[in-house]
Amino acid sequence: MDVREFVKPKMNPGIPKISAGDTVRVGLKAMEGNKERLQHFQGVVIKLRKGVDGGSFTVRRISYGVGVERTFPFQSPCVQNIEVLRHGKVRRVKLYYIRRLSARQARLKERREKAAEQAVPQQEVEEVLEGVAEQEEMKEAEAEEEEKAEEEEEVEEGEEEEAEAETEAEAEAEAEEEQTS
């Protein structure tokens, strides 16, 4: 028998794709009496574990000079959301060596690749693209209005020039008639 046949883990939709070395801010539901509030835990992901139960990840931070590690299951309903603040450039999946380093040595270089695009939820990307499309439509509409206004000005100028030419022609005709008479 396999446990997978009995248990189907439900992945939390508020968790984006994360990897070891990422600096994340985990939003947790905290119950205090009858009130429920959101408590944040910010640190570096030092371990990812995938398994039959859905897996888990461990986040480490330094609090008042003491290293604090906390492990969160991926399918936990207590994890409200995860915000990826930066992507660390690492070559390992388990970053246990960071435990023995000082705060300055434990800093990781930032990875600037496609990971930044992956950190943004798809819904936000679609909203941004819709906003850009609306702005482009507005710019096109403004450009069309400006073109129409310029055409109207050119027509008005052309009519004014024709009127001036007619008045000049009439004035010349009158001047010729006066000279001949």
Helix content: 25-40%
For the secondary structure, the number of strands is: 5
Q: Output the CATH topology of the largest domain.
A: SH3 type barrels
Question: Approximately how much beta-strand content do the residues carry?
Answer: 25-35%
Outline the structure in words.
It is a single chain. This protein is α+β, with helices and mostly antiparallel strands and 181 residues long. The chain has 2 domains: 3-113, Roll (SH3 type barrels); 121-174. 38% of the residues lie in helices and 27% in strands. The protein has 3 helices and 5 strands; from the N terminus they run H-E-E-E-E-E-H-H. Strands 4-3-2-1-5 form a 5-stranded antiparallel sheet, with no helix packed on it. The model has no long low-confidence stretch (mean pLDDT 79).
Write the layout of secondary structure elements.
Blueprint: H1 3-6, E1 23-32, E2 35-49, E3 56-63, E4 66-73, E5 79-86, H2 115-119, H3 122-180
Antiparallel strand pairs: 1-2, 1-5, 2-3, 3-4
Keywords:
single chain; 181 residues; alpha+beta; SH3 type barrels; 2 domains; 5-stranded antiparallel sheet; 3 helices; 5 strands; 38% helix; 27% strand; rod-shaped
Q: What's this model, at a glance?
A:
The protein has 181 residues and is of the alpha+beta class. Helices cover 38% and strands 27% of the residues. Strands 4-3-2-1-5 form a five-stranded antiparallel sheet, with no helix packed on it.
